[in-house]
Design goal:
The protein is α+β, with helices and mostly antiparallel strands. Among the domains are: 57 residues; 105 residues, Chitinase A, domain 3. It is 48% helix and 16% strand. The strands form two sheets. Strands 3, 4, 5, 6 and 7 form a five-stranded antiparallel beta sheet that branches. A two-stranded antiparallel sheet has the order 1-2. A hairpin with a 2-residue loop joins strand 1 and strand 2. Helix 4 packs across helix 7. About 2% of the residues have low confidence.
Protein backbone atom coordinates (compact mmCIF):
# COMPACT_ATOMS: atom_id res chain seq x y z
CA UNK A 1 0.00 0.00 0.00
CA UNK A 2 1.30 3.47 -0.89
CA UNK A 3 -1.89 5.60 -0.61
CA UNK A 4 -4.75 5.37 1.88
CA UNK A 5 -7.96 7.41 1.70
CA UNK A 6 -10.27 6.47 4.55
CA UNK A 7 -10.64 2.72 4.32
CA UNK A 8 -9.51 2.59 0.67
CA UNK A 9 -5.98 1.31 0.20
CA UNK A 10 -4.09 1.81 -3.04
CA UNK A 11 -1.15 -0.42 -3.93
CA UNK A 12 1.88 0.64 -5.93
CA UNK A 13 0.65 -1.42 -8.89
CA UNK A 14 -2.77 0.27 -8.80
CA UNK A 15 -1.22 3.74 -8.63
CA UNK A 16 1.24 3.04 -11.45
CA UNK A 17 -1.62 1.72 -13.60
CA UNK A 18 -3.62 4.88 -12.83
CA UNK A 19 -0.67 7.05 -13.93
CA UNK A 20 -0.21 4.96 -17.10
CA UNK A 21 -3.92 5.31 -17.98
CA UNK A 22 -3.82 9.03 -17.25
CA UNK A 23 -0.77 9.59 -19.44
CA UNK A 24 -2.31 7.60 -22.29
CA UNK A 25 -5.20 10.10 -22.26
CA UNK A 26 -3.43 13.36 -21.44
CA UNK A 27 0.21 12.81 -22.37
CA UNK A 28 3.26 12.52 -20.11
CA UNK A 29 2.81 14.11 -16.71
CA UNK A 30 5.04 17.05 -15.84
CA UNK A 31 4.40 16.69 -12.11
CA UNK A 32 6.38 14.83 -9.47
CA UNK A 33 5.17 11.44 -8.25
CA UNK A 34 4.39 13.10 -4.89
CA UNK A 35 2.18 15.72 -6.52
CA UNK A 36 0.47 13.08 -8.63
CA UNK A 37 -0.14 11.07 -5.46
CA UNK A 38 -1.62 14.12 -3.71
CA UNK A 39 -3.90 14.77 -6.66
CA UNK A 40 -4.98 11.13 -6.82
CA UNK A 41 -5.77 11.11 -3.09
CA UNK A 42 -7.87 14.25 -3.53
CA UNK A 43 -9.64 12.65 -6.48
CA UNK A 44 -10.55 9.59 -4.42
CA UNK A 45 -11.57 11.69 -1.41
CA UNK A 46 -13.90 13.96 -3.38
CA UNK A 47 -15.43 11.10 -5.36
CA UNK A 48 -16.17 9.22 -2.10
CA UNK A 49 -17.76 12.35 -0.63
CA UNK A 50 -19.86 12.74 -3.77
CA UNK A 51 -21.10 9.17 -3.36
CA UNK A 52 -21.82 9.77 0.33
CA UNK A 53 -23.86 12.83 -0.64
CA UNK A 54 -25.68 10.81 -3.34
CA UNK A 55 -24.52 13.19 -6.06
CA UNK A 56 -24.28 10.28 -8.47
CA UNK A 57 -28.09 10.34 -8.56
CA UNK A 58 -28.38 13.98 -9.62
CA UNK A 59 -29.55 14.52 -13.23
CA UNK A 60 -26.47 16.58 -14.08
CA UNK A 61 -24.01 13.96 -12.82
CA UNK A 62 -25.94 11.16 -14.50
CA UNK A 63 -25.79 13.08 -17.78
CA UNK A 64 -22.05 13.77 -17.45
CA UNK A 65 -21.30 10.17 -16.49
CA UNK A 66 -23.18 9.03 -19.58
CA UNK A 67 -21.04 11.34 -21.75
CA UNK A 68 -17.85 9.97 -20.20
CA UNK A 69 -19.02 6.39 -20.64
CA UNK A 70 -19.89 7.00 -24.29
CA UNK A 71 -16.51 8.63 -24.91
CA UNK A 72 -14.58 5.82 -23.19
CA UNK A 73 -16.45 3.13 -25.13
CA UNK A 74 -15.90 5.07 -28.36
CA UNK A 75 -12.17 5.32 -27.64
CA UNK A 76 -12.01 1.58 -26.92
CA UNK A 77 -13.71 0.66 -30.21
CA UNK A 78 -11.55 3.12 -32.15
CA UNK A 79 -8.41 1.56 -30.64
CA UNK A 80 -9.68 -1.89 -31.65
CA UNK A 81 -10.35 -0.75 -35.24
CA UNK A 82 -6.96 0.94 -35.42
CA UNK A 83 -5.20 -2.25 -34.32
CA UNK A 84 -7.14 -4.22 -36.94
CA UNK A 85 -6.13 -1.69 -39.61
CA UNK A 86 -2.41 -2.18 -39.02
CA UNK A 87 -0.88 -3.32 -42.32
CA UNK A 88 1.22 -6.46 -42.66
CA UNK A 89 4.90 -6.35 -43.72
CA UNK A 90 3.81 -7.78 -47.07
CA UNK A 91 1.32 -4.97 -47.64
CA UNK A 92 3.95 -2.37 -46.71
CA UNK A 93 6.45 -3.91 -49.13
CA UNK A 94 3.84 -4.09 -51.91
CA UNK A 95 2.95 -0.42 -51.44
CA UNK A 96 6.62 0.60 -51.46
CA UNK A 97 7.33 -1.24 -54.71
CA UNK A 98 4.25 0.31 -56.35
CA UNK A 99 5.27 3.85 -55.32
CA UNK A 100 9.05 3.84 -55.65
CA UNK A 101 9.18 7.34 -57.13
CA UNK A 102 7.54 8.73 -53.99
CA UNK A 103 10.68 7.90 -52.02
CA UNK A 104 13.19 9.55 -54.31
CA UNK A 105 15.37 12.03 -52.44
CA UNK A 106 17.29 14.98 -53.84
CA UNK A 107 20.08 17.07 -52.41
CA UNK A 108 19.79 20.55 -53.91
CA UNK A 109 21.66 23.81 -53.79
CA UNK A 110 19.65 26.93 -54.58
CA UNK A 111 20.85 30.28 -55.88
CA UNK A 112 18.60 33.33 -55.56
CA UNK A 113 19.45 36.51 -57.44
CA UNK A 114 17.16 39.50 -56.96
CA UNK A 115 17.01 42.10 -59.71
CA UNK A 116 16.62 45.85 -59.51
CA UNK A 117 13.35 47.15 -60.83
CA UNK A 118 10.23 49.16 -60.07
CA UNK A 119 9.67 49.16 -56.31
CA UNK A 120 13.04 47.51 -55.58
CA UNK A 121 16.08 49.68 -54.98
CA UNK A 122 18.43 46.82 -54.08
CA UNK A 123 19.43 43.98 -56.36
CA UNK A 124 21.64 43.40 -59.35
CA UNK A 125 21.04 45.03 -62.70
CA UNK A 126 18.71 42.76 -64.70
CA UNK A 127 21.25 42.33 -67.51
CA UNK A 128 23.86 41.18 -64.97
CA UNK A 129 21.74 38.40 -63.44
CA UNK A 130 22.44 35.70 -66.04
CA UNK A 131 26.22 36.29 -66.24
CA UNK A 132 26.40 36.31 -62.43
CA UNK A 133 24.50 33.02 -62.23
CA UNK A 134 26.90 31.48 -64.75
CA UNK A 135 29.91 32.74 -62.78
CA UNK A 136 28.49 31.21 -59.59
CA UNK A 137 27.98 27.90 -61.40
CA UNK A 138 31.58 27.91 -62.61
CA UNK A 139 32.88 28.75 -59.15
CA UNK A 140 31.00 25.85 -57.59
CA UNK A 141 32.15 23.50 -60.36
CA UNK A 142 35.81 24.38 -59.79
CA UNK A 143 35.64 24.41 -56.01
CA UNK A 144 36.02 28.19 -55.75
CA UNK A 145 34.11 30.28 -53.24
CA UNK A 146 31.08 31.77 -55.03
CA UNK A 147 30.56 34.26 -52.22
CA UNK A 148 33.55 36.23 -53.53
CA UNK A 149 31.45 37.03 -56.59
CA UNK A 150 28.65 38.54 -54.51
CA UNK A 151 28.99 42.27 -53.95
CA UNK A 152 25.66 42.70 -52.13
CA UNK A 153 24.63 39.82 -49.80
CA UNK A 154 21.07 41.15 -49.80
CA UNK A 155 20.83 40.69 -53.55
CA UNK A 156 22.22 37.16 -53.86
CA UNK A 157 21.65 34.15 -51.59
CA UNK A 158 23.42 30.82 -52.11
CA UNK A 159 22.61 27.82 -49.93
CA UNK A 160 25.80 27.25 -47.90
CA UNK A 161 25.00 23.52 -47.70
CA UNK A 162 22.78 21.37 -49.93
CA UNK A 163 19.24 20.85 -48.72
CA UNK A 164 17.56 17.42 -48.75
CA UNK A 165 14.02 16.96 -50.10
CA UNK A 166 11.89 13.87 -50.54
CA UNK A 167 9.29 13.93 -53.29
CA UNK A 168 6.23 15.74 -52.00
CA UNK A 169 8.15 18.05 -49.67
CA UNK A 170 8.61 20.91 -52.15
CA UNK A 171 6.18 23.31 -53.84
CA UNK A 172 4.80 21.73 -57.00
CA UNK A 173 6.62 24.07 -59.41
CA UNK A 174 9.95 23.54 -57.69
CA UNK A 175 9.45 19.76 -57.49
CA UNK A 176 8.70 19.50 -61.21
CA UNK A 177 11.96 21.25 -62.13
CA UNK A 178 14.08 19.57 -59.46
CA UNK A 179 13.01 15.98 -60.17
CA UNK A 180 13.53 16.47 -63.89
CA UNK A 181 17.28 16.51 -63.15
CA UNK A 182 19.13 13.21 -62.86
CA UNK A 183 22.86 13.87 -63.09
CA UNK A 184 24.85 15.14 -60.11
CA UNK A 185 26.07 18.67 -60.79
CA UNK A 186 23.24 19.41 -63.22
CA UNK A 187 21.64 22.86 -63.09
CA UNK A 188 18.10 24.00 -63.86
CA UNK A 189 16.40 27.37 -63.97
CA UNK A 190 13.49 27.52 -61.56
CA UNK A 191 12.48 31.13 -62.22
CA UNK A 192 13.63 34.04 -64.34
CA UNK A 193 11.33 37.02 -64.26
CA UNK A 194 11.68 40.80 -63.84
CA UNK A 195 12.06 40.35 -60.09
CA UNK A 196 14.47 37.45 -59.65
CA UNK A 197 16.46 34.59 -61.10
CA UNK A 198 16.43 31.29 -59.20
CA UNK A 199 18.72 28.40 -60.09
CA UNK A 200 18.81 24.83 -58.73
CA UNK A 201 21.81 22.52 -58.67
CA UNK A 202 21.35 18.78 -58.23
CA UNK A 203 24.03 17.62 -55.80
CA UNK A 204 22.85 14.03 -55.46
CA UNK A 205 19.85 11.83 -56.11
CA UNK A 206 18.91 8.66 -54.22
CA UNK A 207 15.96 6.63 -52.98
CA UNK A 208 15.01 5.90 -49.39
CA UNK A 209 15.07 2.21 -48.52
CA UNK A 210 12.04 0.15 -47.53
CA UNK A 211 13.27 -0.16 -43.94
CA UNK A 212 13.75 3.59 -43.76
CA UNK A 213 10.21 4.44 -44.87
CA UNK A 214 8.33 1.51 -43.29
CA UNK A 215 6.97 3.64 -40.39
CA UNK A 216 5.81 6.27 -42.89
CA UNK A 217 4.03 3.74 -45.10
CA UNK A 218 2.60 1.86 -42.13
CA UNK A 219 0.95 5.02 -40.79
CA UNK A 220 -0.38 5.97 -44.23
CA UNK A 221 -1.93 2.56 -44.91
CA UNK A 222 -3.31 2.25 -41.40
CA UNK A 223 -5.00 5.65 -41.57
CA UNK A 224 -6.39 4.88 -45.02
CA UNK A 225 -7.88 1.56 -43.92
CA UNK A 226 -9.21 3.12 -40.72
CA UNK A 227 -11.02 5.81 -42.70
CA UNK A 228 -12.52 3.15 -44.95
CA UNK A 229 -13.65 1.12 -41.93
CA UNK A 230 -15.30 4.14 -40.33
CA UNK A 231 -17.09 5.11 -43.55
CA UNK A 232 -18.35 1.54 -43.97
CA UNK A 233 -19.59 1.49 -40.38
CA UNK A 234 -21.40 4.80 -40.86
CA UNK A 235 -23.22 3.42 -43.90
CA UNK A 236 -24.01 0.15 -42.14
CA UNK A 237 -25.25 1.89 -39.00
CA UNK A 238 -27.45 4.26 -40.97
CA UNK A 239 -26.32 7.62 -39.64
CA UNK A 240 -28.57 10.50 -40.65
CA UNK A 241 -28.11 14.22 -39.98
CA UNK A 242 -30.42 17.13 -40.69
CA UNK A 243 -28.24 19.04 -43.17
CA UNK A 244 -30.49 22.10 -43.07
CA UNK A 245 -30.11 22.39 -39.30
CA UNK A 246 -26.34 21.94 -39.29
CA UNK A 247 -25.83 24.31 -42.21
CA UNK A 248 -27.93 27.09 -40.71
CA UNK A 249 -26.52 27.17 -37.18
CA UNK A 250 -23.24 28.68 -36.07
CA UNK A 251 -20.79 26.36 -34.30
CA UNK A 252 -21.67 25.82 -30.67
CA UNK A 253 -18.78 25.91 -28.18
CA UNK A 254 -18.84 22.68 -26.20
CA UNK A 255 -16.54 21.31 -23.51
CA UNK A 256 -14.10 18.57 -24.36
CA UNK A 257 -15.86 15.22 -24.09
CA UNK A 258 -12.63 13.39 -23.32
CA UNK A 259 -12.82 11.73 -19.88
CA UNK A 260 -11.59 14.23 -17.32
CA UNK A 261 -9.12 13.33 -14.59
CA UNK A 262 -7.46 15.64 -12.11
CA UNK A 263 -4.33 13.56 -11.65
CA UNK A 264 -2.20 15.97 -13.67
CA UNK A 265 -3.83 19.18 -12.50
CA UNK A 266 -1.40 21.64 -10.94
CA UNK A 267 -4.12 23.38 -8.98
CA UNK A 268 -5.22 22.20 -5.57
CA UNK A 269 -8.87 21.52 -4.97
Amino acid sequence: MIVKVGDVQITQAQFEQYIADLESQQGPADLSRKKLGDNYASLLMLSRLAMANHLESSPEVIRLLAIDRTQILSNAEYAKLKAEAEPTPGQISEYYNAHLDDYDVLQLRRVFIWKKGPGRKTGVNPEEAKPLAEAIRQALATGSDPKKLVKDPESVVIDPQPLTFQRGEMPAAMEKVAFAMHKAGEWAELANDPGNLVMLQLVSRSRRSLSDVTPQIEKKLQNQKLREQLEALKKKTGIWMDEEYFASHAPIPVPNTEPQASGQSKSNK
